Amino acid sequence: xxxxxxxxxxxxxxxxxxxxxxxxxxxxxxxxxxxxxxxxxxxxxxxxxxxxxxxxxxxxxxxxxxxxxxxxxxxxxxxxxxxxxxxxxxxxxxxxxxxxxxxxxxxxxxxxxxxxxxxxxxxxxxxxxxxxxxxxxxxxxxxx
Length: 144
Prior knowledge:
The structure is a single chain. This protein is 49% helix and 21% strand. It is of the alpha/beta class. It has a six-stranded mixed sheet. It is elongated.
């Protein structure tokens, strides 16, 4: 049984599906997302580059990202709940039946909802405009 969640991200697939100016913006958003979820993630890009780690997110480069994503899914699906984020039909089809698949656009919509929910005020006073807060403070002090 899976004891943790592992997200596998198809880098350029997500980058082109989203509105990110560069890979750094995508990397930062995904690092925050997996940290918030208490999960781990691997962001895989085609081509050459330096592998990095940003908290619970690994960034990997491979000559063929699809092959690496398929291999990571196969190696981890017995030990972890694996969630593959890609709209590439070939990768989705060969990653295995036990791997959960999410299209890039669907994931980005969910990611945007999570990012927006983090910005919501958590206390009532944070939701009040300054004039209302001041009036309530005066009432609390017994001033007119």
